[in-house]
Amino acid sequence: MTDAALDAPWQALQPLPRALWLPGAITSVGTPARRLADIDHWRKALPAGLLPDAGADFGDSAASAPLRAVVGELHLPALARDTPALAEQVLRTLLWHLDRIVDHQPALSRAAAIERVTEEFRSAWQEEGCDLAADLALLQQLGHADSLRWDQVRGHLRSRPWRLAQQAAERLAQLPALAELIRRLGRSERAVVAERTPQAAPANAAPPLPMRAVHTTLEDAPGEITGIRWSSRIEGMLGSEAVMLRHPVLKKLWRARHAEARLLGWQTEALLTDWRIDPHARPQGPAAPERPEALERGPFILCLDTSGSMRGAPEQIAKAVAIAAVRAAHEGARGCRLIAFGGPDELVERDLGPGPEGLQSLLDLMAQSFDGGTDVQAPIEAAIERVHDARWSGADLLIVSDGEFGCVPHTLQRLDNARARFGLRVQGVLVGDRETMGLLEVCDQIHWVRDWRRLDGNEHGAARGGFSPVHSKSLTALYFPNALSPRAARHHADPGT
Q1: CA–CA gap between residue 22 and residue 115 (Å, rounded)
Q2: Are 186 and 395 in contact (CB under 8 A)?
Q3: Which single residue of 240, 329, 389, 424 has CA 20 to 30 Å from 205?
Q4: Is 105 exposed, middle or buried (0-12, 13-18, 19+ CB in 10 A)?
Q5: Which residues of 279-316 are buried (b: 16+ CB within 10 A; e: fewer)?
Q6: Exposure pattern of 189-215 as b/e (b: 16+ CB <10 Å)?
Q7: Where along the chain do its domains lie?
Q8: Which residues lie below 8 Å from residue 279, measured CB to CB, with a gap of 6+?
């Protein structure tokens, strides 16, 4: 007897997840071979959002048909789409209830026992799936639904950090401009050369000299055919001349014509264009610099200010930005690096990528209370070190802060060097009432969340309705323009913005 025959039918367990081995082996419906084949069919159909075929009944259509109808009635295939852990749990509970049929006999008839387990299955998934759709939708948007076991999914969805993540996602819906900003972050990884800011021409540079085209005709050179002429050149003779070479008499005539340069051949000429300085033309102005190609949708580094001054509504907006960052990274398969910073030695650096580790990092941030001081030099130094890595060389830097920080000249110079070498762009999200010198000196662009108070999450913020007591974020530039450093003054802030 062969090894395959000895293993039959249990070799069908091999492609199944380990969590389905025991239900597949002991469920008391059908035959093992039929049951295991249908389990594999259900396991593939549910994550695709499909209700399995009625023929996949585990060898007992009378018992399976009512349960299959409940699966469709509760829209469980739609819930399980792209979530293998949920599909596996649906299948496990379905097999468990099928196995319960024999436990209700002989106290109940088989038909009554099937009706009982069907109602128990419906009741269990009605309660389980009540709030599951919204949670799974967010989990799928964050890119972690296909990498977790069901016990991990349930543990996360029932945790306090997950409720905070849901609240952050709801706040994000009120900030579409921020979501669009994050979508554009980064420079396309397909580009080999990073975008550079065009350099202005030197003031003393001479304007380009006017040029004129000088055309020269080259007779008998390879080029345009203009006619037929007498020639002795074999490569240009007509076909009617070439056929004489195969004739026993005409080949003598061909030789005579060749010697006398009387063969019929193509007349050609080439046109040579030479650009020369035109001394009589009017001088031209300097040429406009070539505009660089717009690059976006690449990796990005997210620096979140977790200092005590961010507590309250700014903290909620910062967490909403983190949710938007993970969504954008998942949708575009882009890298996302989180650098959360507070006071000195309060720096946390993590990857917000797919997988359990990335989700745990995000939930840890959701559960974190913002406190401490503000030291932005450490995260900027860390971001500069990161962009020297090949994976992050095309990344942009996004700083979310209330702006209460500053940087020493050495850090600013390193930032400028990274801009020049890698094309690094620094975007700032201001969650406060005014730009500070630190934010102006570090960022290339500053995006003001003016109505941040309406996202305070308490009755006072709601009562104020998002009222801002200031009319412009650029109060320093408006009232103390001489206080701005040359680096900060480059923003040319508009008081009306």
Answers
A1: 24
A2: yes
A3: 424
A4: exposed
A5: eeeeeeeeeeeeeeeebebbbbbbbbbbbebbebbbbb
A6: beeeebbeeeeeeeeeeeeeeeeeeee
A7: 3-130, 176-191+295-489, 212-277
A8: none
Rounded Cα gap, residues 98 and 154, in angstroms: 23
Region of 273 on the Ramachandran plot (φ > 0 left; ψ -120 to 50 alpha; else beta): beta
Q: Which two tokens stand for residue 56?
A: 């996949």
Average pLDDT over residues 429-447: 81
Q: Indicate the class that CATH gives domain 176-191+295-489.
A: alpha beta
SS3 assignment, position 226: strand
CB 341 within 8 A of CB 347: yes
pLDDT of residue 457: 54
Kindly report which listed range (68-77, 285-294, 439-448) carries the lowest average pLDDT score.
285-294
Instruction: List pLDDT tens digits, range 254-288.
Output: 999 999 888 889 888 888 887 778 777 776 655 55
**Token digits for 9?**
């039918």
Are 119 and 184 within 8 A, CB to CB?
no
Full-model pTM: 0.59
Cis-peptide into 210, omega within 30 deg:
no
Distance CA 6, CA 457 (A): 65
- How would you classify the pairing of strands 396-401 and 426-430? parallel
Angle at which helices 313-332 and 160-172 cross, to 10°:
80
DSSP letter at 237? B
> 15-38 pLDDT, tens per residue?
888 888 888 888 888 888 898 899
End-to-end CA distance of the chain: 84
432 and 399 Cβ atoms separated by less than 8 Å: no
